[in-house]
């Protein structure tokens, strides 16, 4: 596979932040060209490393089912870190920042062997850490949110409809197979949060640049998205990360949107409680007026 890597920012700082994009099947260009208020500020102090994961974004190569799994993506990340040291020196520091699916991938990398020794810090931004529990967390978060919006007299009829659609689910028995239906309700809840003014976006970069410049191949992205999402996510369903998180002692920052119902704050709390990082070196930061796209 050929995975494009772009390094931008202050490389003289000797600190490189590898951005693990969402998905599976997302891309790094969004963070680099759309979410510029997020990425450009970091680039002033550190070097940002944007790469498209295997079978994602503008990555190319044969879509061999045998390589569309979490273990392969972890190995790819290991090789990227080796490449950065080869290119910029053994004295550089590397931090990981994972958003959404990138949070799962980051934790999968960190709990393998001695991989956490290869990085100096870990930042998870609205990530997913347990696929099985995620459905339960999302249902609970949307029910609580709907009750809150109704109590505040915000789009009452529409939030009542969300509650009705959620009523068919029992959080004690919800299955991974329910995920597509739950995602549809999540999409609706996110739309209502924007419509009601609870959530705002600060995506100020050029959509043209994000779609057609910077070596980004729109049709390659579209061809990658569905095989990557289906195959890699199916593999992720079988992986239980939480019991392994006690291995982690790295300084860790969790950044979460107040209104994230896709990967709710319960995901952050679950990981926070299970890592072995000292209390003084781990923190959850909640961003107001933000949802899953906290940047």
Question: How would you describe the overall organization of this protein?
Answer:
With 295 residues, this protein is of the alpha/beta class. The chain is built from ten helices and seven strands. A seven-stranded mixed sheet has the order 1-3-2-4-5-6-7. Helix 4 (101-110) links the parallel strand 4 (93-99) and strand 5 (121-125). Helix 5 runs antiparallel to helix 6, helix 5 runs parallel beside helix 7 and helix 6 runs antiparallel to helix 7 (179-195). The longest helix is centred in the middle third of the chain and has 21 residues, at 131-151.
H/E element sequence: EEHHEHEHEHHHHHEHE
Structural class: alpha/beta
- How large, in whole angstroms, is the Cα Rg? 19 Å
Number of helices in the DSSP assignment: 10
- Major beta sheet summary: 7 strands, mixed
Q: Specify the helix fraction band.
A: 40-55%
Poorly predicted runs of 5 or more residues: none
Calculate the terminal CA-CA distance, rounded to whole Å. Answer: 30 Å
Q: Name the overall outline.
A: globular
């Amino acid at each position: 596979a050929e995975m494009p890597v772009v390094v931008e920012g202050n490389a003289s700082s000797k600190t490189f932040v590898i951005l693990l994009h969402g998905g599976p099947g997302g891309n790094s260009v969004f963070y680099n060209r759309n979410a510029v208020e997020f990425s450009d500020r970091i680039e002033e102090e550190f070097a940002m490393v944007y790469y498209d994961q295997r079978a994602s974004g503008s990555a190319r190569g044969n879509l061999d089912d045998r390589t569309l799994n979490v273990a392969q993506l972890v190995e790819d990340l290991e090789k990227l870190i080796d490449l950065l040291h080869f290119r910029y020196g053994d004295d550089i520091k590397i931090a990981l920042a994972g958003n959404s699916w990138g949070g799962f991938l980051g934790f999968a990398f960190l709990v393998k062997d001695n991989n956490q020794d290869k990085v100096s810090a870990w930042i998870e931004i609205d990530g997913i850490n347990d696929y099985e529990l995620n459905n339960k967390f999302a249902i609970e978060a949307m029910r609580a949110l709907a009750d809150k919006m109704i109590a505040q007299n915000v789009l009452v009829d529409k939030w009542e409809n969300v509650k009705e659609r959620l009523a068919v689910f029992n959080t004690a028995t919800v299955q991974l197979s329910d995920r597509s239906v739950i995602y549809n309700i999540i999409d609706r809840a996110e739309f209502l949060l924007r419509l009601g003014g609870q959530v705002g976006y600060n995506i100020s970069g050029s959509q043209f640049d994000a779609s057609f410049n910077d070596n980004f191949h729109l049709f390659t992205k579209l061809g990658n998205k569905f095989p990557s999402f289906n195959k890699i996510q199916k593999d992720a369903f079988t992986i239980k990360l939480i019991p392994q998180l006690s291995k982690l002692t790295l300084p860790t920052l969790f950044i979460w949107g107040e209104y994230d119902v896709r990967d709710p704050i319960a995901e952050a709390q679950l990981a926070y409680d299970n890592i072995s990082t000292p209390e003084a070196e781990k923190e959850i930061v909640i961003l107001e007026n933000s949802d899953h796209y906290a940047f």
